Amino acid sequence: MKLSILVSEGPYTHQASDSAYRFTKAALDKGHEIFRVFFYHDGVNNGTRFTVPPQDDRNLQKLWSELAEQHNLDMVVCIAAAQRRGIMDENEAKRQGIDGNNIAPGFRISGLGQLIEAGIQADRLVTFGD
Amino acid sequence: MTMLHTVNKSPFERNSLQSCINHANEGSAVLLFEDGIYGALQGTEKSSLVTAAMNSVKFYVLGPDLKARGISEDKVIDGINVIDYDGFVDLVTEHGKTQSWL
Amino acid sequence: MSETKKFMYVNRRAPYGTVYALESLEVVLIGAAFEQNVCLAFLDDGVYQITKGQDTKSVGMKNFSPTYNALGDYDVNQIYVEKESLEARGLTLDDLLDLKYEDEDDDWAEKDSIRVVSKKELADLMDEQDVIFSF
Predict the structure, then answer these.
(1) Residue A40 is among the residues annotated as catalytic for this protein
(2) Which of A106, A120, B15, B21 has the least CB density, counted as fewest CB within 10 Å?
(3) Measured between CB atoms, does C38 come within 8 Å of chain B?
(4) What's the gap in Å between the CA of B34 and the closest CA on chain A?
């Protein structure tokens, strides 16, 4: 089956990103297709590569980036939510005159239409939030 | 199409479990996970809310979240199935749609 | 051509204390372009999102409540408000924004977008949807 995942909270503060990750991994291991993982609200904070969590704990950004690479996942960070919270890719940074960018590998910044499309194209949409 | 409802917050913190139960029609399923697992436990002020709902709705609880919080499965209300992430995926695909009560 | 699905946006939280009300509205507006069958549900504290008289000047936040009035222009005109949630909060329809749309099938007659429904009716409406967004 084709599944879409909505992650509405950032890493560590809420369990949402962990649960979403574990669910997504289980779905892939079972042979399901993940149409898209969409990060909204504080969920966009999962997509920064500037995190340095303690060594003895999981690194959520790396886990997502690695899962995306392993399975060719489409992981989208909402541009409006990202702008509010300071998640930038190179293009956005240039456009906005920001002196750096921080998007993590495997994540791309795009519009809310991608969330709607994720709902239309998938057989199921599951939301992980607070 | 039946609905899978998920509740991830404790019933002592939020009204999400109550709200979910208020809107879960007969034949639907409810998965308690993250802090929502506290709603699956015997001997709390919320237990009767859940056992009453179990007459028409099937309840599940996510084992990994019980374990993380140090809760043994024998503390779970009788009749609530303990499942893992694989089971969570199966619930999502078996039911027509999922509604998350945050 | 992709199928048309029934989408419900479920709103259960008060405005301003958290961002969810504003950012959910942003999804609704973008989503309107996709010509799906869209409805909104306001229940629990979500009913506070569409109350009249919001004045955010002294908290320094953007008052986005006028945007709800534009929903009719975006063909979003099925707005369900839960009766029990209103009653628990001592609210009536009079406390809510007067949300309207123009019915193109009825000579553009102006009609109310808000329908107050019981929790059972809302549960049944939820069961009819293909996709439910929770914010």
Answers:
(1) no
(2) B15
(3) no
(4) 7
